[in-house]
Amino acid sequence: MNGRQEHSVSPAELHRLHTVYYDTPDSRLARWGCCLRFQRGEGWTLKIAVPYELNGLVLGEHNFPGEGTEIPAGVLDLGTAYFRGDVPAPVPELRALRTSRQVVADDGRGVANVAEDDVRAVGACSCESEFGVPVVGSQSSVGDVVHAAFAQSVDQIVRLDAQLRVQPDEDVVHHARVAVRRLRSHLRAFLPVLDAHGARALCERLSWLQDGLSEARDADVFLAGMSRLGESLPETDRRALEHVLLPFREAREHAYQRFGAMLREERYVALLRDIVDAAKRPLLATSATGAAWDAAPALVSDAWSTLSKRVRRRTKPPSDRDLHRIRIAAKRVRYLAEAIAPVAGYFVRRLAQSAERLQTVLGEQHDAVVACEWLRTIAADDERAFVAGELAAGANAAGLDARGDWKKAWRAAKRCRRAVEAGPMR
Fold first, then answer.
1. Which H or E run contains 98?
2. What is the pLDDT of residue 1?
3. Are residue 162 and residue 91 in the same domain, yes or no?
4. What is the dihedral of CA 364, 370, 371, 377, to 10 degrees?
5. Do 59 and 112 fall within a single domain?
6. DSSP 8-state secondary structure symbol assigned to residue 369
């Protein structure tokens, strides 16, 4: 006996599958690499391409029950960033003929099912990018640079929307806030080549979204910082740490809930529509048709002038408010320099890096100031005051370290600025 087992294959069974795909009239889901389908017996499936550690995209699949033709409310909510108030309708279908056979052992046991699908598409849909972003290089117009800069930020806002609804965490909130801040910074920095009225109005409306994200993000930063400081406390005080942080954890949850509610307001949907329109068709002035190479020096000088003035006008020693304003101006220099680096080259890229360093140092100082302010709110509670004081002392020390470092970062940024002025961009 050779031990071999005989198998047989059952007769083929044919099943007709009918899948209906849904999209907006301008094929937004397809353009963003997403899809919405309905299949009888399986319900609704929404697949959304989301950033994966911001280095690529993965397709997240979300299933919703339902057998009717009415799209579930959960689908419309999760796809808000793509639908933007429009209700998707059926588009080209997929029809499949599935042939299935069962492999049966000689003792009658089923060993495997083998299915083969013959899939045929009915019609076709567009998959071109919704933004139509130009490739930016040395020959680009300043309008192309603005178009690419806007599109980069809005792309992140749109793609992160579903994650903010389904599973918001500190990384998603952080990246969403950065994208909103960057877009607002571009609206200000590129103001000389934009329709000023429209750009200012959009920037102001975005502040509402940024504030909501900032409340949640600030709570995350505070709790992470206090947890790190808590590791250095004596063991007895470490046991009391969670009691000290409890009200701040509750405040974080409330901030996340408030932001989640903001995402479901009509105001937010209208804002999404308008920033997507701005990314597709930036609010450009006639001067935006000029070469970016020619416009770059003036744009950099304008952003740098704001930063330099804030440094010169600081009190001595600088107040916390002074340092915060310097940080905001450094951030604008950084974002602008990053946007025009493909045109202006090496020296502007170095300026962006030095401005980022200055921004980071002053960000650490600002986080320490905020932490001390928050910890003062529980100083009257005798049970928690001592541990809160220890944490505040640690935060204050970190803030003092950052205060000692910011001038060094500023001097490095000035050196990079002088290199830009002397470099080939001029």
1. strand 89-105
2. 44
3. no
4. 170
5. yes
6. H
The whole-angstrom separation of Cα 72 and Cα 395 is: 48
Helix or strand run (H / E) with residue 349: helix 346-376
Q: Is the pLDDT of residue 202 over 90?
A: yes
pLDDT digits (tens, 9 = 90+) for 26-37: 999 989 989 999
Domains of the chain: total: 3
Same-domain check for residues 274 and 170: yes
Structure tokens at 194: 């934009």
**Between residues 184 and 316, which one has the greater pLDDT?**
184
H helix intervals, 313-345: 320-344
Peptide bond before 317: cis, by omega within 30 degrees of 0? yes
- Any idea of the CA torsion for 39, 41, 44, 45, to the nearest 10 degrees? -80
Claim to verify: residue 140 and residue 55 sit in the same structural domain: no
Q: What is the pTM assigned to this prediction? A: 0.84
Domain of 411 in residue numbering reads as: 306-378+390-426
DSSP assignment string, 174-188: HHHHHHHHHHHHHHH
pLDDT digits (tens, 9 = 90+) for 223-265: 999 999 888 888 888 888 888 899 999 999 999 999 999 999 9
DSSP-assigned states of every residue in 45-96: EEEEEEESTTSSEEEEEEEE---SSSPPHHHHHHTHHHHTTPPPEEEEEEEE
Clarify whether residues 212 and 173 are in a common domain: yes
Query: Is residue 110 domain-shared with residue 253, that is, in the same domain?
Result: no
Do 189 and 336 contact (CB within 8 A), yes or no? yes
Which tens digit of pLDDT belongs to each residue from 58-106? 668 899 998 777 899 999 999 999 999 999 999 866 555 556 677 667 7
Helix (H) or strand (E) holding 99: strand 89-105
Per-residue pLDDT at 270: 97
Asked whether residue 299 is domain-assigned, the answer is: no
Whether the predicted pLDDT of 119 surpasses 50: no
